[in-house]
Amino acid sequence: MSRSVQYTSSPLLASRTPVWRSKFIVAAIALAFVGLAARAAYIQVFANDFFQKQGEVRFARTLELPANRGRILDRNGLILASSIPAPSIWAIPEDVDLDRAQSQRLAKLLDMPIAELNKKLADDDKTFVWLKRQVDDGVAKEIAAMNLKGIYQRKEYKRQYPEGEAAAHVVGFTSVEDNGQEGVELTFNKELAGRNGSRRVIKDRIGRVVEAVGETIAPADGQDLQLSIDSKVQFFAYQKLRDAVLENKARAGSVVVLDAITGEVLALANYPSYTPDKRRNLSGEQLRNRALTDTFEPGSVMKPFTIGLGLETGRVTPQTLIDTGVGKLNITGSTISDSHPNGVLTVEGVIQKSSNIGTTKIAMQMQPREMWELFSQAGFGQKPQISFPGAVSGRLRPYKTWRPIEQATMSYGYGLSASLFQMARSYTVFSHDGQIIPVTMLRNTEPAAGVQVLSARTAGQVRKMLQMAAGPGGTGQKAQTIGYSVGGKSGTAYKQVGNGYGSNGNRKYRSWFVGMAPIETPRIIVAVMIDEPSNGKYFGGDVAAPVFSETVQQSLRLLGVQPDMSVKPQIVVQAAEESF
Amino acid sequence: MTRLNLVLLMAVLASALYLVGVQYESRRLFAEIDKANAEARKLAAENERLQVEKRAQATPARVEKLAKEQLHMKSSTPAITHYVTYAASSAAADTSSANRPNPESVGRVQ
Question: Is B105 in contact with A567 (Cβ distance < 8 A)?
């Protein structure tokens, strides 16, 4: 027996292979198997991360759960802004292969010239091209139905603004990425935006979600925001303003309606305005929220404050006589004039006839500090505490630098500046029994707690004067409205043209009216400003007061306020000249 | 002994097949729930869209235009409004008499 393996009995084929060789082979194969087993164990048990991950990449997906942006509602819960789905269409140009009819149809659906579409699809190097962002839901469905290769949709949301241009400046708008850009959309962006959630899922071969893995982070929807705006009041205010701006061939205008009890902003409109969802070719003129951003010298609107201070400190009573002379008064070399001589007036008459000289004579009895304190407390020179972008503080210089002539001009509203919104708010002093109240854009049904600036008695006296100013013999008679008693003060100013106020015939004006109604227990404060009326009329009492009248009429009716006056036909007696 | 093993083997096989079946069914149901959820979201979005649409059709601007142009209506003013008070607060009822329509103001459109 040789030490070899016998494969056959034939001696011819007898192999001389030694046994150790076959044993070696067996051992080698066994070793290879051990190696494989070890590797398998290593891969599957000890170092499985990499393969685990690679596997997951192929079937697990993280899905984003988009949060809805909150809606903006008016005080009655009507929608002012809401997000609706608007898919965006994108393409991989290289994969797109359209025949002529298809591209024609697609271009028509996307509302763009066919050349533009072809240009977008021409660049084969790009792997991603937006064809159009945020198309209508219906259009997206039709495009999806065309089943085109290389053209995809991405789910996006679009803001919709049902009120359109009437509420544009209040509500503002969002960018295509759903970030607030203007107005309330910007101010309350954080509250409205919400937070996207996510979840991890396993998808099968045909893309169906078959299993959720790990933790699901639920999306936090944005909060709904209820504004103090009343969309009907807002609309009527805007409509009356627009009509007045067009009728007077003015450059622009603003109107503010405040609730005199709660300090809520019921309406805030500017003209020219814009449609928030069609923002091509927008100009700064249209975008600017003039009521908050434009400041001007408040003029006669300041007189009630000066008189109020005189009454409060006991320097004058409503019946004190003031001699306004022949309509000219010299203060340290400068001349103050009234538009025409008024002779001897009572303090009430000074407001009614809007006499600069009368106001100055009362003001010169006071300390600059007193006036400055009252003006500051009434919000002049202070940034309004309102959550709104772009609100300005206006200008009120420290009293220590006032010269006598400046004190005089400031008493009737020159040498300081304020926005229309500040003026409207300052009049809460008179409407709210001497308290200045904080204003808010958000709904608030509680009566506002204010800071006492004047006594309730003084406020009542000034209200009576404001009523006279808007009544027969006053400068703002066109502010009268059927059924409701009103009170208010008009103002007119030359606008600065170049280096001065312009020469005759080339002058530019700004006219405004600030008032309240019903006068005994004011419910609303309305402020109207018309910029550069150029159709013959330019006095605040002629241009802005009618807008005030109509806005008050509609607003009080909508708010369900019962008329406090017996109804008379609206007769305007001969208007008194007003000074500015 | 062999028979017991055989029975156990059969049991294991049956259980394994059952597991596969159950897993399949659960995935199918999950996919269905997911689809239903997506549908619900879509309907909610559609609802929101229609709400906005409805609101857009009922804005004061449009209502006023239609009322004036198609129905020939006029804005009301206190001059053509008769105010009435509830019987409970009849003390104030006499105010309504003060607001009788005035012939000159009737028909005035604002």
Answer: yes
Contact yes or no for B34 and A239 at CB 8 A: no
The answer to whether A75 and A226 are in contact (CB under 8 A) is yes
A551: pLDDT confidence band, cut at 50, 70 and 90? very high
Q: Which residues contact A296 (CB under 8 A, 6 or more apart)?
A: A417, A418, A493, A495, A510, A529
Half-sphere exposure of A342 (CA within 13 A, CB side): 30
The amino acid occupying position A492 is T
- The candidate with the shortest Cα–Cα distance to A525, out of A437, A458, A418, A400, is A437
Residue A285: CB atoms within 10 Å: 12
Please give the structure tokens belonging to residue A121. 């699809």
Determine which of A210, A224, A551 to mutate to test the interface with B (most B C-beta atoms within 10 Å): A210
pLDDT-based confidence at B100, cuts 50/70/90? Answer: very low
B78–A563 C-beta distance less than 8 A: yes
User: Model-level pTM?
Assistant: 0.79
Peptide bond preceding B60: is omega within 30 degrees of 0, i.e. cis?
Answer: no
Q: Which residue has the higher pLDDT, A343 or B83?
A: A343
- DSSP state, residue A531: E
Which residues of A have a catalytic role annotated?
A: 300
Q: Which of B46, B51, B78 sits opposite A483 (nearest CB)?
A: B78
Token pair recorded at residue A572: 């305007």
Residues with Cβ within 8 Å of residue A184, at least 6 apart in sequence:
A72, A170, A171, A172, A225, A227, A388, A441
Chain B residue with the nearest C-alpha to that of A563 = B78
Distance from CA of B98 to the nearest CA of A (A): 5
